[in-house]
Queue: 2 jobs
Job 1
Amino acid sequence: MRARLTLLVVAVATLTLLVFSIPLAILLRNAAAERVVSAAEQEAQVLSSIVATTPKSDMENSVEQLNATSPYLVTVFWPDGSVIGVEAPRSSAVDLAAQGHSLTAATADGREILFGVRMPDDGHAVVRAYVDDSQLTAGVGRSWLLLGAIALVLLGFGLLLASRLARVLLVPLADLAAVSNRLADGDLDARASAEGPPEIKRVGTALNALADRIRDLLEAERERERERVADLSHRLRTPLTVLRLEAEAITNPTERATVDEAVGEVERAVNAAIRDARKPGRGATECDAVAVVAERFEFWSALAEDTDRACSVSLAPGPLPVKVSAEDLAAAMDSLLANVFAHTPDGTAFEVRLWARSDGGAIVDIADEGPGLPDAAVFERGRSDGGSTGLGLDIARRAAAASGGQVVFGAGPGGKGALIRLELG
């Protein structure tokens, strides 16, 4: 934009200077020519008055002295055809002046100023003063150079003014753009400096007010979210306690251990939700995807064995760092694996695959051999067909988005079943 503004000023300044400079240059040239012609006319006119009153025999010395001192060449044509002064051709203009006229005529390389002088013996002499082209344009080149220098100075001043104007306008605009980008990236502490013209100051003030309002709304929403999560978490404490007591009443040690482990996992998740509600700041934002996926697969494989599901896992060599916390990745894996158990019949096999992305991060595939996804668009909106709230998919989607990835839905191997791909940055 700065280059375009400078180019616009240069174009306008150049056009303005041309509009004024060209006529002024022509005027200077014409004025110089008129000044020289006027001076030559004055000399020829003075000589004409002398010719009218002085005998021919006395004029030769006077004309020679005049040619020696004057910059203009003088010639006198007498009625009898004789000539004194500088040799000059008798042109048609001289013949016209010999009839008693006075005129200025152009020649091949200058101008001749002619005065017809009536002589006492009934005839007309012609006084001719000659001005060549070099005399007509004397000093014009210097005047044009001065005019060009003035034009360049004015053009330079215009460029300086354009640069100053661009700085006054564009620097605050660039600051506004930078602040807007920072706000768009989530930096709610970004503020614009109230500088520049009044209009830009008002825009900066409005942008700062908008940033303050956004931060206030987000803080209020976070506070309400923390209150809702905390309330829900505390409500779950009582049924968890009941489940813990019921688990202790189971006599079969193996079944009691399985139920205890499941209740413990739910309790840990509830405690983590309570901690997050009380302290919204995040912990570590990176984890080893291999370790987390392996740990969650091992947990769910026990339930798969109870429901006669064949399951397998394929893990890339670790460690494989991803930009998401271990808690969030574990919650995402739990939500996706829980969907397999919730939406496929017992005995349906599933597979978990983990490998590294070429540009950093990891990809986790959870594929099953169930009935598949009847409407992938419904799942992408965060709600399934089976009366589910879709919160599990939202958990996975948020974890992927926080790391710079996404969740992709598709068909399982060979077009059978469902495939949910968790891409992590």
Job 2
Amino acid sequence: MKRAGLVLVSTALLGVALGGAGSTAAPTPAAMDVSDARVAPAVQVPSGNKLVAKFYAKGVQTYICTAGAWKLLEPAATLADRLGRAVALHSRGPIWVSTVDGSAVEAAPVDGARNEIPGAVPELLLKSKSTRGKGVFAGVSYVQRLATKGGVAPAGGCQESDQTSVNYEALYTFSAPVR
């Protein structure tokens, strides 16, 4: 049964990668670039870590109605390199999986490490819980979600168990310990 679920999630994410699920085009790297000087202090990666990858995401934040309010269910996004080539998928966990080398990182938000962005999901700092593989995500210690656009849950009430997906874009950075 787990395999069937993985196939459904993979198919949904592939739809995002190919322009489905509300996606209209590949992320635009130039428009989403953020310099270190513009990163809010709350979401900065601690010293002793170095940037190992930076990808631009486009996808959806899916919400489910629980007790009359929208609650985040899962993200589904495709990450692209600076040339716009799809290189990774982002899904519930949260987890990021490279479509190039199969490496993956799962992370959890760092308490209090968020920067509110009007009209967009917040910028976040996440700490790695686990990694696998020998590729781009091997040894990642921190993930940042920056330069967010959209993805905010709808305003107002909802009917129990309803789901909705809201388009979003973000810049994800991946850092690893300096060795």
